[in-house]
Automatic annotation (TrEMBL):
Name recorded for this polypeptide: TetR family transcriptional regulator
DNA-binding region: 26-45
Annotated Pfam families: TetR_C_4, TetR_N
InterPro entries xrefs: Homeodomain-like_sf, HTH-type_TetR-like_transc_reg, HTH_TetR, Tet_transcr_reg_TetR-rel_C_sf, Tscrpt_reg_YsiA_C
Gene Ontology MF terms: DNA-binding transcription factor activity; transcription cis-regulatory region binding
Length: 196
């Protein structure tokens, strides 16, 4: 699939799934939104489920890349600043990718099949977070009794659902008070109280 076609299909399918939900969206509607022939869509994706997985995997990969770019500019020894950058990456991504945020966190993934797909595509995201947390734990930046999987899930829940609630109220995530409050909450949850 050509890059331009791939981008058109990703953007159109994402918009359709985010606005209507998986069950209410048809391949015909997606083709129309994308501005591609229905045959082109079916040639690249045999089922709507295949297209949904493509959208979710592509969106999560973009999310992971952005998080990595944000935290990689900070030394691994400065865990506090890396966490601040991690929170900022989430807010910036969800502010810029609101349709993906809605799709990822909304009720449109309510069936068992959608839960499986979400868990599958988020696996790489959680691996990234858990590796970051484990590295900090190995350096003595986190207490040894803390479970990195639980922390990663908690971070995703706190940041993700705060972002979703903000978006659903049609408010901006580019809000310094909101960001500071959540950043402080995350730092305190991790036992990071002072500048390193």
């Amino acid at each position: 699939m050509r890059a331009k076609t791939k981008t058109l299909i990703f953007q159109g399918a994402l918009k359709a799934f985010a606005e209507k939900g998986f069950n209410e969206t048809t391949m015909e509607q997606i083709a129309e939104i994308c501005g591609v022939a229905k045959g082109t869509l079916y040639y690249n994706f045999k089922t709507k489920e295949d297209l949904y997985i493509f959208v979710m995997e592509s969106g999560v990969q973009n999310f992971i890349t952005m998080i990595q770019d944000y935290i990689d500019v900070v030394s691994e020894d400065n865990f506090r600043q890396r966490i601040i950058r991690l929170v900022a990456a989430h807010f910036d991504f969800f502010q810029n990718e609101q349709d993906f945020c809605r799709l990822l966190l909304s009720r449109s993934w309510g069936t068992h099949e959608r839960h499986h797909t979400i868990r599958h595509v988020l696996q790489k995201y959680f691996v990234l977070l858990e590796q970051e947390l484990q590295a900090a734990k190995d350096r003595g930046k986190l207490p040894h009794h803390m479970d990195v999987a639980v922390i990663a899930s908690s971070l995703f829940g706190m940041i993700g659902f705060t972002a979703m609630r903000t978006i659903s109220h049609e408010e901006s995530l580019d809000n310094p008070t909101l960001r500071y409050n959540l950043q402080s909450l995350v730092l305190h949850m991790l036992g990071i109280f002072e500048e390193e």
